[in-house]
Amino acid sequence: MKVLLLGGTGEARELAGVLTASGVEVVSSLAGRTSDARVPVGEVRVGGFGGVDGLTDWLRQHPVDAVIDATHPFAATMTAHAFAATREVGVPLLVLRRPGWAAESDDNWHWAATASDAAELLPRLGTRAFLTIGRQGLDAFAGTGLWTLARCVDPPEPRPSWCTLVLARGPFTLADEETILRDHGIDVLVTKDSGGPATAAKLTAAQRFAIPVILIRRPPLPAGAEVVETVVEAAQWVIRASHSPST
Known about the structure:
By secondary structure, this protein is an alpha/beta fold. It contains 7 helices and 12 strands. The strands form 2 sheets. The protein has a 6-stranded parallel beta sheet, sandwiched between helices. The protein has a 6-stranded parallel beta sheet with strand order 6-11-10-7-8-9. The longest helix is centred in the middle third of the chain and has 14 residues, at 76-89. The mean pLDDT is 94.
């Protein structure tokens, strides 16, 4: 059994370890956009495929029994390419997506469909903003006129002059997030609905400080995609596929 595993998420790294330990040959593909990325066990390739046609050609030249898309919930382009390419080649595709976050009674959340929509809403909710959306999409907030702190793993190019930039890689503790909100006088938080516990501490900190949060909704998955939410479910799917007559 050989699997192409797309994504540099924590779930992708965990799944690569589980599958490798089970005797599955795994090729992990990382986009290469993040410097000093954490590398999973097993074979690793870095860089894009060149769109749907490039991924289709790769799958034909490097036959695999299945493809698992464990990319970030906002990596919509890669997911769409994987869906189209696997259908073209006839290889099973599974999408592994952690569940999104759910608001609690004390949360003050406001949903936005896109970064642009979030930027339009932002001035109505605060004057000192904390953006934790990564470097992609930051430009949408350049014209808000608010004092803005933006946290990214790697600096955007060109480096923005309209905001204060913090370069840091999570996970961040609750104490970390409370400190940054307090020290910078933050009164509104903007983030993506990434889900999972690794980046959820900022939401708890915002709740404790009664700070409103703008959450950008996830892009929709391709219609008809097979989806699971946990590494365990994904591993079970691979095991079932390995015992099917067509594998």
